[in-house]
Amino acid sequence: MTFQLGSALLDACVLAIVEKEDAYGYSLTQQVQSVMEISESTLYPVLRRLQKAHYLTTYDQPYQGRNRRYYQITEQGRIRLLELLKEWQMYKEKVDCVLLGGNLDG
């Protein structure tokens, strides 16, 4: 079963991956696909949007005679990732409470 989740979670996944190490598009796609269904054609607009928001920067590095574009998190990206992680934790706790039976007030 696949849950459809919003762009904020996709942003958080991308930023979290790139925070650990710089990554290129195909590599990012593979890592994101381990937790949600996404294609490269879906991911590249996300990467451009995160770059436009100054959460990511890019640099090219030669690889087998071609340039490979790597994405690197910025300080603004790290701040945004922390915000997204806090939002995710609150959301996750509420969903867990409903699914696992608990009290939303506490």
Automatic annotation (TrEMBL):
InterPro entries noted in UniProt: Metal_resp_DNA-bind_regulator, Tscrpt_reg_PadR_N, WH-like_DNA-bd_sf, WH_DNA-bd_sf
SUPFAM superfamilies linked to this entry: Winged helix' DNA-binding domain
Family annotation (Pfam families): PadR
Gene3D superfamilies in the record: Winged helix-like DNA-binding domain superfamily/Winged helix DNA-binding domain
Transcription regulator PadR N-terminal domain sequence ranges: 14-81
Protein's recorded name: PadR family transcriptional regulator
Species classification: Bacteria, Bacillati, Bacillota, Bacilli, Bacillales
